[in-house]
Amino acid sequence: MVMEEKKKLTLVQQTAEMVEWLASFGGSKSGGVTRLLYSESWKLAQEALKARMEEASLHAYYDDAGNLFGRLEGSQKEGRAILTGSHIDTVVNGGKYDGAYGIIAGVLALKYLHEHYGRPKKTIEVVSLCEEEGSRFPMTYWGSGSMTGLRSFDDVYLLKDQEGTTFIEAMEKSGFGKGKYQHPGTAHFDCFIELHIEQGEVLERENKSIGVVSHIVGQRRYNVTVNGESNHAGTTPMKWRKDAMNTASALIQVLMEKSKRMPADLVVTVGQMIVEPNIPNVIPNKVTFSIDIRHSDSDIIQSFCQEAFESFEGLARERGTSLDIHKWMDEQPIKMCEKLNELSTTILQTEGTSFKEMTSGAGHDSQVFGQFIPTSLLFVPSHKGISHSPHEFTKTEDLEKGINLLIKILHKLAY
Ligand SMILES: [Zn+2]
């Protein structure tokens, strides 16, 4: 009876139902969702999804890290499978859509294809990746990373969560671990297609339904430490000071002014500052601040940093201070698959669905897969760009447009 009723639902109704259903695992009264890797709500969500996949006639299985796959077997024996999906984990008190949407889209698309067109030629799989956010253990992309080989079980041995539980303990308690299940890895897959909410407000502001991502931006992060000399705020004349804050503010000013003369999509953020001794009536002897720089072209990032840092030295010297610049992150931009993007834009143009080709300022699992197999990342609008919050919201009609696109892409590729 329940099955009968479910069949009657339209795709948009199924989408709305599945969003609320999945959000109930780890859901709070405030409307937020917390599903940390290998937690109870995480395990319940994966198990419930497994049952949903089986209900949709997919062969559901886990890998050793706890990634869950739903397989729609193709008639061709040879050849690799097409993969779609996203991550099941959330940040603490996150939203209903981040990650979850890509999984829901995959399950509903495969269900639709099976119901309307039967068995495909090529195998298609949907994956509910175990982890992306890094919100329980100090490591991100465990799901896609363990699949691609970018991360290994050796990388997680020393990790602990805030309660002191080790990664291995948590993983084993959930029933996963090296050798517990098979490890399909990316060698079995032809390509990866991820649907995700934009987590920015470009699509909404420009009134576009779909974002076709050309690149995931590269990121560099630095810590800049300015060394000066502490002294009395009342008795030290301005001209004799070695004020680390005076230098830091000049450097940040230069950074922001230079960024305005770069291509508009270069973004620079100084989001953290540590002042020592951090006392109102003492001249700071040490200021450390972070710099986060992102762009889709690594040459642009490089030339920006080189120019900025060249002027830094002189500015620090003029103020009687010295500098240490420490680079601690350098992630290269990742290009998404042009052929897959062409397929998407052709479908969207034919349908008359509005879209925008754009870069992604955030990473996503596509950043990992894109280093190994042809990858496509597609966005749907995020209301006001709000994400990692209970207020995260995307209209069901927008979610459905994304799922429709995924159905058409998979149909074209697999049938
Ligand atoms: Zn996400």
Gross morphology is elongated
Q: Structural class, from secondary structure content?
A: alpha/beta
Strand content: 15-25%
Number of strand elements: 14
Average pLDDT, rounded to a whole number, is 95
Instruction: Let me know the largest β-sheet.
Output: 9 strands, mixed
Give the ligands present.
zinc ion
State the end-to-end CA separation. Answer: 31 Å
Can you count the helices?
13
- The H/E string reads HHHEEEHEHHHEHEEHEEEHEEHEHEH
Uncertain runs = none
Rg over CA atoms: 24 Å
> Percent range for helical residues?
25-40%
Protein name: Allantoate deiminase
Pfam family, one: Peptidase_M20
Domain Peptidase M20 dimerisation: 218-300
InterPro entries: Amidase_Cbmase (IPR010158), Bact_exopeptidase_dim_dom (IPR036264), Peptidase_M20 (IPR002933), Peptidase_M20_dimer (IPR011650)
Jot down its keywords.
415 residues, alpha/beta, 14 strands, binds zinc ion
Description:
The chain is built from 13 helices and 14 strands. With 415 residues, the chain is α/β, with parallel strands linked by helices. α4 links the parallel β3 (81-87) and β4. α9 packs antiparallel against α10. Zinc ion (ZN) binds at residues 87, 98-99, 132, 196, 364.
Task: Give the helix/strand layout.
Layout: H1 2-8, H2 11-23, H3 40-55, E1 59-62, E2 68-72, E3 81-87, H4 100-117, E4 124-129, H5 142-148, H6 153-156, H7 167-173, E5 189-197, H8 202-205, E6 210-216, E7 218-227, H9 244-260, E8 267-269, E9 273-276, E10 286-295, H10 298-318, E11 322-331, E12 334-335, H11 338-351, E13 355-360, H12 365-369, E14 375-380, H13 396-414
Parallel strand pairs: 3-4, 3-5, 5-14, 6-13
Antiparallel strand pairs: 1-2, 2-4, 6-12, 6-14, 7-10, 7-11, 8-10, 9-10
Helix pairs in contact: 2-4, 2-13, 4-13, 9-10
This protein binds zinc ion.
The site of zinc ion (ZN) has 6 residues, from loops.
Pfam family, one: Peptidase_M20
Family: Belongs to the peptidase M20 family.
InterPro entries: Amidase_Cbmase, Bact_exopeptidase_dim_dom, Peptidase_M20, Peptidase_M20_dimer
